[in-house]
Amino acid sequence: MAQQTITLIGGGLVGALLAQQLAQRGFAVEVYEKRPDPRLSGFPGRSSASCARGTRPSMDSGGRSINLALAERGLQALRTAGLADDVLQRAVMMRGRMVHDRDGNSSLQRYGVDDSEVIWSVSRGALNMLLLDAAEAAGVQFRFGQSLVSADFDAQRIRLADAAGVERELPAGMVIGADGAGSALRATMNAHSPLGERVESLGHGYKELEIPPAGELPAGVLQLSGGRDQYALEPHALHIWPRGGYMCIALPNTEGSFTVTLFLPAQGAAPSFATLPDAAAATAFFSEQFPDLLPLIPYFSEDFDGHPVGTLSTLYLQRWHLDGRALLIGDAAHAIVPFHGQGMNCGFEDTVVLANLLAAAPNDSAEVFAEFQRVRQPNANAIATMALENYVEMRDSVADPHYLAKRELGAL
Ligand code: FAD
Sorted alphabetically, which InterPro entries does this protein's record hold (predicted)? Predict the structure, then answer.
């Protein structure tokens, strides 16, 4: 059994799963996570109408997507970790895209011929907490409220700050950064020797809104929406309102609500976030472009004014590691735009590959990290390209009659 201690920065989705995978393979793992333990404090971030009313099951992580599409590549990693059944018990199956046109008509485009080809909607918060529990059960030590400030790779030390800003230094031989798109470890590696970093902004942003469970909506609103059980819309679908240059999507949550995300150009001529400075302007825009969706969002003004506009970029790095001393994984290495719903899935796949490589050669981290990049980088680049292409498909092509005809013929 391998016995090396590994220092992991970031206990988010990828960090927690990687920690569990490494511990299962006999490594001693310490994780330093910036935020407090979400199992004790909830997920920090916005206050929304439904949170205040206590109907939202798990809060979001700082204004980003509060539910995610889990697909086969992520599920396969969870199967390897022995966690797939637990996760699926807390997930809602999505059989296909439910496309809503401007006239209020909707149609389901299935992902496969039957329920063997589906994706799943999972709560980011619930999933993170499940992964933290699993990692702890496997023997991982988590240190919450500890933010990486910098690393001295030559002296093999890291510098951390607690919530009060008090800094301390610790020894750390092998450091792995799962600290997300804004990775502090990446910044400090880059300062030591440049990683060939390129960040391409999409120029579009996003904002999250919420459709509450059907029981919170007036009966008249529900008559036409196609919902059932406790849901205001068909629960087993990823809903899309494609409008050409922009779109809304909605993913179901287990307790009956949907998380809606509006994707729109950040700047420029209407419609863009710049031309929707407040809820009044946004309400007028939604009445025109999403007339069937607006009545399903009773706290539209609070959500719109209270939630930040998120930015979307693709991160490309020439190098993911500093010989055998430091490595980046997940969004820290390859953040992508979310339109293929594959960022987390790709990061989960990373964890299995890395854990297997390290278990096979625990004393040759330089070779392992190089091999990890060699194996995973082409996949990450391909997914980044597909994610960018899928934005055009989701906001535009899915409503195009030519696209639909090709789908009918099985060409797509
Ligand atoms: P993160 O989730 O960002 O976690 C990083 C962790 O590191 C956090 O816990 C953070 O607190 C911690 N951290 C940060 N800095 C420090 C520091 N200095 N010191 C210590 N800890 C630190 N992916 C999908 O697969 N399916 C989807 O449907 C999907 N939808 C998305 C929708 C949107 C709008 C967005 C923005 C993304 C979406 N993604 C989706 C992508 C997905 O969110 C990311 O790929 C995933 O969260 C990456 O996980 P991670 O652990 O690498 O990074």
Answer: FAD-bd (IPR002938), FAD/NAD-bd_sf (IPR036188), Kynurenine_monooxygenase (IPR027545)
